[in-house]
């Protein structure tokens, strides 16, 4: 593995160097184990500790099958799906892998007594399987997380509609939190040349998800002048949504939970910010929804916007906020949701939906085209990574714990094969132009 690191991090590595690389029989990966899925039984969600369930383990190296690529993972990142896998909620993700393994003969290798996690990756192509035409060893890449067979007609207008679609590193094995990873060729995109490995790795999942949810015609189709309420605007997902809104000519109303996070979103160009902790919103009281607080939030939004209700609500907390989101959206407005980090059991008052002709749109991650466009905005320096902290691979449990406890801003990165931070930049001129924005979350 040391030999691979030397070649993939060398500035003068030639194609023949990669062709002659000897691939090791084993590599280290961050795993959950099938025999531990009941380890947290009887505990509430908050008490489940990813540091106990995430392990570093030696994993046999698989051969890339047809359409697959073996990638040296230089860096990855923590997503909420990593936390869900680590606490085995809402169901053990290793059970999803077993179903995936039955979809096609080439996926049978994923059915193991452990699951290598991670839905983000920045790295270097080492080997390509049969039929791969557009990628070659030595290419610097990032990976989007959608895996699909493309065998059914359902997904050929929008691949996210393909029923065979799975989330790589959550519903599959061989994810990005490892020294080596296996991806489909249709997951790969060029790494933004002005970013380090860890910066590039932190953007693929959340930026693409925010793009589909907010910008794409498959989501809210945001336009210039739209007022957009963004929950968790300084978090891994919301921080990309905030940038997309600002640079897309919309008017974000950013919900945050501390003065520090308020400063961060203002530094991204957002002017309308609500610190929900300081203003004491309690959307639930004694286990019951609290419509008075929904109204108080709507009045606060109107105060900031000059009387305008949100055209779009960027939803992802779920149970805690959905009632307020439906209530606060304007007449004919759109609530677009991609997750439920505070709980899947939703409550909203349907009168405020149907009588005001509002709509709720569900979105999930992004198709390849949406991910490609979102990555292109990163490469152009229009949207910037939101990396706030970086951990070593053996510290992944601690990194996931921080995300689980919501003690982070932006995204938390993990170095895999990269021996240190700061490597991988091949366009220093572009980096110099955007250094302050790239490091915004690190400074805070």
From TrEMBL:
Keyword Signal: no
Keywords, comma-separated and alphabetical: NADP, Oxidoreductase
Superkingdom as given in the UniProt entry: Bacteria
Xref: Gene3D superfamilies: Medium-chain alcohol dehydrogenases, catalytic domain
InterPro entries listed in its UniProt record: ADH-like_C, ADH-like_N, Crot_CoA_red, ER, GroES-like_sf, NAD(P)-bd_dom_sf, Zinc-ADH_QOR/CCCR
SUPFAM superfamilies recorded: GroES-like, NAD(P)-binding Rossmann-fold domains
Domain Enoyl reductase (ER): 49-414
The EC number(s) this enzyme carries: 1.3.1.85
GO molecular function: crotonyl-CoA reductase activity
Pfam families in alphabetical order: ADH_N, ADH_zinc_N
Protein name: Crotonyl-CoA carboxylase/reductase
């Amino acid at each position: 593995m040391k030999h691979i690191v030397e070649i993939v991090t060398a500035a003068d590595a030639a194609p023949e160097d990669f062709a002659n690389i000897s691939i090791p029989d084993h590599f280290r990966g961050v795993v959950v184990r099938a025999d531990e899925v009941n380890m947290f039984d009887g505990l509430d969600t908050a008490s489940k500790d990813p540091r106990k369930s995430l392990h570093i383990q030696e994993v046999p190296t698989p051969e890339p099958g047809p359409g697959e690529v073996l990638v040296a993972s230089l860096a990855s990142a923590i997503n909420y799906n990593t936390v869900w896998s680590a606490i085995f909620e809402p169901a053990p993700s290793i059970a999803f892998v077993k179903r995936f393994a039955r979809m096609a003969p080439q996926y049978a290798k994923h059915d193991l007594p452990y699951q290598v996690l991670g839905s983000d990756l920045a790295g270097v192509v080492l080997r390509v399987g049969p039929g791969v035409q557009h990628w070659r060893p030595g290419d610097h890449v990032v990976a989007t997380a959608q895996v699909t067979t493309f065998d059914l007609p359902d997904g050929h207008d929008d691949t996210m509609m393909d029923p065979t679609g799975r989330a790589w590193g959550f519903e599959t094995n061989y994810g990005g939190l490892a020294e080596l990873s296996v991806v489909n060729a249709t997951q790969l995109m060029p790494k933004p040349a002005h970013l380090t490995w860890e910066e590039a790795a932190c953007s693929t999942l959340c930026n693409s998800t925010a793009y589909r949810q907010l910008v794409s015609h498959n989501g809210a189709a945001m336009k210039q002048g739209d007022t957009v309420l963004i929950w968790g605007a300084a978090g891994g997902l919301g921080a990309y949504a905030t940038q997309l809104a600002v640079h897309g000519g919309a008017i974000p109303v950013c919900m945050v939970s501390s003065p520090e996070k308020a400063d961060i979103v203002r530094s991204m160009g957002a002017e309308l910010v609500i610190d929900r902790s300081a203003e004491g919103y309690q959307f639930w009281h004694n286990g019951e929804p609290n419509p008075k607080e929904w109204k108080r939030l709507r009045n606060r939004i109107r105060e900031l916007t000059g009387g305008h209700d949100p055209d779009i609500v960027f939803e992802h907390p779920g149970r805690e906020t959905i009632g307020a989101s439906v209530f606060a959206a304007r007449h004919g407005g759109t609530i677009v949701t991609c997750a439920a980090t505070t709980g899947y059991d939703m409550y909203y008052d349907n009168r405020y939906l149907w009588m005001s002709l509002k709509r709720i749109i569900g979105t999930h991650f992004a198709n390849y085209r949406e991910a490609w466009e979102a990555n292109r905005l990163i490469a152009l320096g229009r949207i910037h990574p939101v990396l706030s902290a970086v951990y070593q691979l053996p510290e992944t449990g601690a990194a996931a714990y921080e995300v689980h406890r919501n003690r982070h801003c932006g995204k938390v990165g993990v170095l895999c094969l990269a021996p240190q931070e700061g490597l991988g930049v091949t366009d220093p001129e572009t980096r110099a132009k955007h250094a302050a924005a790239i490091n915004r979350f690190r400074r805070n």
